[in-house]
Design brief:
Blueprint: H1 11-20, H2 29-38, H3 43-54, H4 59-64, H5 80-84, H6 90-97
Helix pairs in contact: 2-3
Bound molecules: iron/sulfur cluster.
Iron/sulfur cluster binds at residues 50-51, 54-55, 62, 65, 67, 70, 72-73, 76.
Length: 102
């Protein structure tokens, strides 16, 4: 396969190519969510799309994400923490990292 390096993709083509690489799971819900995010009308969809991308499109990995330094962490989907919007519960994170409390 020949690759034409002289032709750069337009922004529209880049987005279309990115979208093609999103796994076609759950009746295309990941792609629909991406479309919603890219429409600029939903920050929630944008956070969901970014978190799924970050965790290789594995919902369970997003749910279990414990990168508390990430600015999206308080808003990440698939967790009660996201719904409560209570911010980062550092006390809970400390207990998670050290159940014995030592
Ligand atoms: S909150 Fe976690 S899953 Fe979401 S972007 Fe940050 S590190 Fe990735």
């Amino acid at each position: 396969m020949k690759i034409n390096l002289t032709r750069l993709l337009t922004p529209k083509e880049q987005i279309a190519r990115w979208r093609e690489n999103i796994p076609d799971l759950f009746n295309g819900s990941y792609r629909r969510n991406y479309d919603k995010a890219m429409s600029g009308k939903s920050l929630r969809a944008a956070v969901t799309a970014k978190c799924l991308d970050c965790m290789c499109w594995q919902q369970a990995e997003v749910k279990n994400c414990d990168v508390i330094t990430c600015p999206l962490y308080p808003y990440k989907p698939y967790s009660a923490r996201q719904r409560s919007r209570g911010g980062v519960d550092t006390k809970q994170m400390e207990q998670k990292q050290c159940p014995a409390g030592i």
